[in-house]
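QA checklist item 7 of 12: single-chain prediction sanity check.
[x] sequence parsed
[x] length recorded as 434
[x] structure emitted
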Amino acid sequence: MDTSLHQSSLWWQTAAPGPDTPPLSGSHQADVCVIGGGYTGLSAALHLAEGGTRVVVLEAEHVGFGASGRNHGQVVPMLSRYGPDDIARRFGDEPGERFNRFVGEAARLVFDLIERHGIDCDAQRVGWLLPVDSPARADMVQRRAEAWAKREMPVSYLDADATSAVTGSDYWKSALRHDWGGNIQPLSYARGLAHAAIHAGATIHGRSPATGLVRSGNRWTVATDGGTVSAEAVVLATNAYTGHLWPGLGQSVVPFRLFLGATTPQGDNVRRTLLPGGHSVSDSRTILWAFRWDRDARMVLGGDILLPWRGQTRTVSVARKRLSAAFPEIGEADFGHVWDGKVAMTMDRLPRAVELGPGVWAALGYNGRGVALATAMGRLLAHRCMSGIGPDDPVPTELRSLRPIPFHTIAVPTARVMLLHYRRLDSRAEATRR
């Protein structure tokens, strides 16, 4: 099966049922029109509806079709590249610390929404691990753990013995543990957000791609093939699947294809021994190694490849090598599912939350941290729709402007070249293990 088809994903095969979201038909009025039915758009719709706002969501395919239904399912309370001290230095103490708190508490928001709305998504609030594969990175991870702990976050640094105990592997030498992280079934979570938003009063239309966005007076008209929505404000929540609806928006990110695989269910002895506490692992390599169990004892992991040709075969090959290194007990695993999805990367690996025009809001560029960040950004955009940007807005001013990437047409092939460069950096760091 083609790995880009949503049916190839493990999550599609095991997700809780979604709500009925018929295509848009006819002309409709709303306070806010949300374009995109992933985490950002659904979180925005839920929080808008809970605030009494009339909101209509337009999704081109089905709820969670994009990265929200295809990702690894890790709820990560950190940025991919920067520690909290880095953020404070870059943006200044006060705005930097507001942003740090926003990032750190995003994971709590996910689990709080799951609990409050009774979302059936295999949620495990067990913590998240950033282990160190080589001595060359140990100091960085320890400094980051200490920096978060100073900010009263539940973050600790684990030595070699503690890391081995929590991972069930001697491959990693130390680790950062953040107790606010964990796992979810990502497509079930998206569907659960949709159910909650509808229950709160939102209307969601699937198979309704937006084809036009026009300003008339103080309102916006969003057109689809089947009808229109007139609204005072618009939320563009399309992230890596952004098209040409707004000039420059899609050119502000690089949509990078990541491949994932899930083994067939493993035996009880292996399941109890490896990652025995159910933690998620995203190690400190530049090219991420990510591991976690699903509810049926399948090991789910990433299998990034340079070129998509023969993606399924090559993803399995990469995944098996990683399993052999980190968890040799699994042996020559069979893979029941291999799939891919697009991740929106920014040049500086920082997200954006911008006002594109009067009453038109967008957030994107989560750089592999989308479960928590997109949920938090959706709530933030809902607040901005209702109240504008206040003095305590958690996103620094620098991250509120759209920055199209120069020569965007060559961004994807350039990113593949950079992937090769990052692999070489990882190989050099790994050499320090010996």
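[x] summary fact logged: The radius of gyration is 21 Å.
[ ] second reviewer sign-off
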